[in-house]
Design a protein that fits this description.
Layout: E1 15-19, H1 25-30, E2 37-41, H2 44-50, E3 56-59, E4 76-79, H3 89-94, E5 98-100, H4 107-122, H5 125-134, E6 155-159, H6 163-174, E7 178-183, E8 195-198, H7 202-208, E9 211-214, H8 228-233, E10 239-242, H9 251-259, E11 265-268, E12 288-290, H10 301-317
Parallel strand pairs: 1-2, 1-3, 3-4, 4-5, 6-7, 6-9, 7-8, 9-10, 10-11, 11-12
Helix pairs in contact: 4-6
């Protein structure tokens, strides 16, 4: 990419707007004592008011394209999340506004959460919590398939081997699982997976895996990736774990498969509409464990984003054209 036509201001003249409804971005940034002027906004309306003086916008889920109307000074957007499909890339290019993701910021968090879901479903912890609230002590089970299970010896199938998928693979090996994965480019893979398949070999992964984990980005190729055909290819004893994007899964087909026990269960952190509707069967299906898009959320999250932001500010100040996690 060529150098931006807008001159990047010095630190003394820089102004950052942190926009998030919950995360304490300003507090975390202030601890770094950078001397850079900054402000935190908690709503779209507040952000719109602050943007005319902002050179840098740090934002993710609060983004709306209408923000560009107030972005006369904006030079750089640092996404707070790893995803960036909400941003209008062509329009940002036209306005010469740089964009970087926070890819890798939640690698540990999401991979930890992935195994929390797997272990909870394998060990029936969600059912145990339900019984706890009812003060019910479950007796020993004669029906072997109805019992809790062990991970050792099972096959873990990972769709997407980026930062998160690679760590999920390492955790899988630590639990003595066989790990297979799909990757767009298999030629340069070096990691713990026992077998890495091309993306178009997904059916091979689905037929073998006891647990299928989605770690892929949302792209035209991955939208609706797990559809009726894919679910029918999975083992009836298999689990689906989605810590990617909700739209990677055909939710109607998944509900049907879960309701008919075509697969054993699912751990879901993301949904097509962000929050499932009140009458969505995901809320009540016994073989489903849902979390509120919290896989990447930890006490270290803000500090991890600030690390990426400061590195990118330093690169922009030096006039470098390549950013950390550069999108534009």
């Amino acid at each position: 990419m060529t150098s931006p036509s807008k001159l990047f201001p010095s630190t003394a003249d820089l102004n950052i707007c942190f926009a998030h409804a919950a995360y304490q971005m300003e507090t975390s940034f202030a601890r770094r004592n950078t001397g850079i002027d900054h402000v935190q906004t908690w709503s779209l309306e507040e952000t719109m008011k602050e943007l005319p003086t902002a050179d840098i916008l740090v934002i993710s889920g609060m983004w709306e394209n209408t923000l560009l109307e107030a972005s006369s000074r904006l030079l750089f957007i640092q996404s707070i999340g790893a995803g960036y499909d909400q941003f209008p890339l062509d329009e940002l290019r036209r306005r010469n506004i740089r964009l970087a993701s926070a890819r890798g910021v939640n690698r540990n968090a999401v991979s930890d959460h992935t195994f929390a879901l797997i272990l909870a479903l394998f060990r029936h912890l969600h059912l145990g919590r339900d019984r706890q609230r009812q003060k019910v002590w479950r007796q020993m089970i004669s029906d072997i398939p109805a019992r809790e299970d062990e991970l050792a010896g099972k096959t873990l199938g990972i769709v997407g081997m980026g930062h998160i998928g690679s760590r999920v693979a390492r955790l899988g090996k630590a639990f003595e699982m066989r790990v297979i994965a799909t990757k767009r480019d298999t030629s340069n893979y070096e990691g713990p997976a026992d077998e890495v398949l091309a993306a178009d070999q997904l059916p091979d992964l689905l037929t073998q895996a006891d647990v299928v984990v989605l770690n892929c980005p949302l792209t035209p190729e991955t939208q609706g990736l797990i559809d009726r055909e894919a679910l029918a290819t999975m083992k009836s004893s298999a689990l689906l774990i989605n810590v990617a994007r909700g739209a990677c899964v055909d939710e109607e087909a998944l509900i049907e498969a879960l309701d008919n026990n075509a697969i054993a269960g699912a751990g879901l952190d993301t949904f097509v509409g962000e929050i499932p509707a009140e009458d969505n069967p995901f809320w009540t299906l016994e073989n489903v464990l849902i979390t509120p898009h919290s896989a990447g959320e930890t006490q270290a999250y803000e500090a991890n984003v600030i690390d990426i932001l400061l590195e990118n500010i330093a690169r922009l100040e030096r006039g470098e054209t390549e950013l950390l996690n550069q999108i534009i």
